[in-house]
Amino acid sequence: MSPDPKSVKVHLTTGEGVTIEWKDGHLSTYPFPFLRDACPCALCDEERTKSSREPGQPIEAKPGELHMFKAAAKPVSAEGVGKYAIRFKWNDGHELGIYSWQWLRQICPCEECRLSRTAHK
Q1: Is the Cα torsion angle 42, 114, 60, 77 positive or negative in sign?
Q2: Is 69 exposed, middle or buried (0-12, 13-18, 19+ CB in 10 A)?
Q3: What are 37-73's pLDDT values in tens digits?
Q4: How many CA atoms lie within 13 A of 33 on its CB side?
Q5: 35, 61, 80, 107: most buried, per Cβ within 10 A?
Q6: What sign does the CA torsion over 11, 13, 14, 16 have?
Q7: Contact of 23 with 5, CB cutoff 8 Å
Q8: pTM, full prediction
Q9: Do residues 39 and 47 make contact, with C-beta atoms less than 8 angstroms apart?
């Protein structure tokens, strides 16, 4: 499992998400809402831990809680951080997370990677 990307495509205008082709040939596609729910910053990580959510898993409404409209998560900008990561500025104003290539490879949402993580638990 190589944490180094061969190519990275951020589909800001279409809102599709991020596609990464890794040097080992694996292809990962990350929808923007998944990435927002997987934010690696300390605040988001603490919130996920408290609610026992996996990275990328959305917040579930509590029983009886009124569902409020929330715009779909979408970055307004994206920028590289050195040669090791990418950072997004989200439409909800959040911009603290630095998504390292290693983190993105670790949380790849494809079925093959999800099954591999489940098997290792």
Answers
A1: positive
A2: exposed
A3: 999 999 999 999 999 999 999 887 777 766 666 778 8
A4: 6
A5: 35
A6: positive
A7: yes
A8: 0.89
A9: no
